[in-house]
Amino acid sequence: MRVLAADMGFGYTKATDGQQSQIFKSIVGEANAVQFGESLAPTAAGAPRQFNLAGEEIFVGELAETQSRGRSFTLDPSQFIVKYAKTLALAALAPYAEHGDPVRLVTGLPISFFRKYKEPLTTLLQQRHALTVVNAAGERVDKMLYIEKVRVIPQPFGSLFNLMLNDQGRALQQRFVTEKIGVIDIGFRTADFTVSDKTRYSERGSLSTDSGMSVAYSAIANLLHEKSGTQIELYRLYEAVTRGSIKIKGQKYELTALVQQAFSQLASRIAAEVNRLWADDWDIDAIVLTGGGGATLAPYLLPLIQGEVLPMAADQDARLSNVMGYWKYGMNIWPT
Predict the structure, then answer these.
(1) pLDDT value at 44 more than 80
(2) Residue 148, Cβ neighbours under 10 Å: how many?
(3) What is the model's pTM?
(4) Each residue of 237-261: pLDDT tens digit?
(5) 111 CB burial (10 A radius; 0-12, 13-18, 19+)
(6) What domains sit in the chain, N to C, each tagged with a CATH number?
(7) Which backbone phi and psi does 229 adopt, to 5 degrees?
(8) How confident is residue 33, by pLDDT bands cut at 50, 70 and 90?
(9) Which of 193, 181, 162 is nearest to 286 (CA)?
(10) DSSP 8-state secondary structure symbol assigned to residue 54
(11) Rounded to whole angstroms, how far apart are CA atoms 331 and 131?
(12) Strands 180-186 and 286-290
């Protein structure tokens, strides 16, 4: 029995076995015959990005973005669960699971989707899955991925468990066990706020809003559309925003000012939401800011948040905070 963790986000999908991890864009596309394979950019750590699921040939992640004629991406939660979650999860977990061997999986959902989709997601994943993995050399390997158990938790608790537990799933930082901790988890689709009072979930202090990074990306895309006449898909802006510029039909557009404006406005919106939500929780000891969006918005958000905000780990990709916590939680409930 092996413990794995997956975080199927609207922007990125993440997975880990505790030793290795991978991140890829949450994009699915039809697999086209590639005439010249050597032209494909190599994927991180050689992780496969082509699969056959239920008789359908698919690309995922950046391979789907660059090579699929028909590719899809959604910010709709019901569509995400029905059409994307299983495919992204299996693609993410395939490198870490041996053929037919039972694995136990921890994953998470945004707070606002948790009650509605917890059981459907569990049912979707907790079974045997037959798939074919196509590696970079074009070799096809049939695999049975047996997910024996699934545990779904509220998404922000992943980051809390990542700070609280060590790699054996034991409590490492007593502060997170004995104090009242607020968590701000900013993803691509949602911003999730939760309070852990001596590890107990606070319903009153927990909420999901639509203030994810997609709000800022949509604002940038709309401004670019006004200037260039071209509507840019949000997932094609990720690298451009980091780089600070984008080239559209041969013309270069500087993004730094647009990005700063969009991020500043989103940070103000999130700060207003969290300060209003936690108005009665004035006894919070510390606040954890996490998620890929949390790392991005930190310079804009920190001056606006009331309370002690714990610094993010500089040596870890913030996008992995939840999935690493899921895995540590799995080690806690299923010690090997």
Answers:
(1) no
(2) 15
(3) 0.92
(4) 999 999 999 999 999 999 999 999 9
(5) buried
(6) 2-154 (3.30.420.40), 175-212+260-313 (3.30.420.40)
(7) 80, 5
(8) low
(9) 181
(10) T
(11) 26
(12) parallel
